[in-house]
Amino acid sequence: MRQFALATLVSAATAAVYGPIALLWWRRARVRSRTLRLVAAVEPEPYHAALLRQEATEAAAAELVLGGYLRIDEEGAAFLTEQGRDPARTPAHPMPAALLEAVRRHDPEPVSIGWIDWCDDEYPERRSEYRSERDALLPELPRMPDGQGNMFLACCTCVGIALVMLFWLLAGALLVTGRPHGLREWAFTVVAALGLAALLLAEKAGRVVRERTECGDPLGDLVRSAPHPAFAALDEEQRTLVLRSLDERYRWRGADTVVHEEAYDEDDDEGDEWLDEKVWWEDAYEYRASDEDEPDAAPGATPPSSG
């Protein structure tokens, strides 16, 4: 009789533990299938995909170089060509068109693509507007259920784990101390033992369910699957110059100013000289003030005669 009751209770506890795990697997499998189906129907525009990869500016610069609007020298400075200066000729896509207009605003001074990307006023705004327009066309992907952020569910899970551990200890003690007689009691004992073993594997089963139903970042994988066509069409030298101009953010500032490394050195030297002169004057002032205070500080000292 004890073996039958023990097998029944262990089976009920096992079903209570694995029921939520099975429900979690069903929900996550549905969400994963729906997410992959939605992403499979997405065909991102090349510049939108480049924006999602944070590579839209170099793609636009690559198209301007290929189109003959722009040339970049060995130091990363970008210059307009005759075609680039012609206001009647502008790329059809808004991203390279916005970058070309930004370079035209700095013409005839050289400017780096990195300076425009980080410090220009209008180009980042137009890039954000374009991204907002394209992001609105993307499907809303369902959220994968994971239970994170739900404090009530987390508390219930902790209480449930504690109760299952207590039950497992009691059931294990009853199973070990019991002495089954006959084939039926031995069968009930085996069922109870298998149920207790399954309870031990419940945490691993939940982890396996999460791993096998995880869909990762399918949209990110889609946009990272291929580079922008214009950037891929550049040869190795052109690609190096575009990336060098993109990394140069402070030296070539177009019509604002052109900052050379020698200027930084001269400014540092002038700053050091001014600091040394300031410290010398402060020290001299403190030394003179201490000399003036010495006669007043001595006790019983008489002031000097006026002559």
Brief account:
With 307 residues, the protein is mostly helical. Helix content is 69%, strand content 2%. The termini are far apart.
Report what the structure shows.
This protein is mainly α. 69% of the residues lie in helices and 2% in strands. β1 (70-72) and β2 form a beta hairpin. The longest helix is centred in the first third of the chain and has 39 residues, at 2-40. The chain is rod-shaped.
Shape: rod-shaped
Task: Write down the secondary-structure element order.
Answer: HHHEEHHHHHHHHHHH
Q: Uncertain runs with pLDDT below 50, 5 residues or more?
A: 257-268, 270-307
Share of helix among residues?
Answer: 55-70%
Q: Numbering strands along the chain, what is their spatial order in the largest sheet?
A: 1-2
Oligomeric category:
single chain
Approximately how much beta-strand content do the residues carry? under 5%
Please give the count of helices: 14
Strand tally is: 2
Distance between the termini: 127 Å
The value of Rg in angstroms is 37 Å
**Class of secondary structure makeup:** mainly alpha
- Please describe the biggest sheet, giving its number of strands, its sense, and whether it closes into a barrel: 2 strands, antiparallel
Mean pLDDT: 80
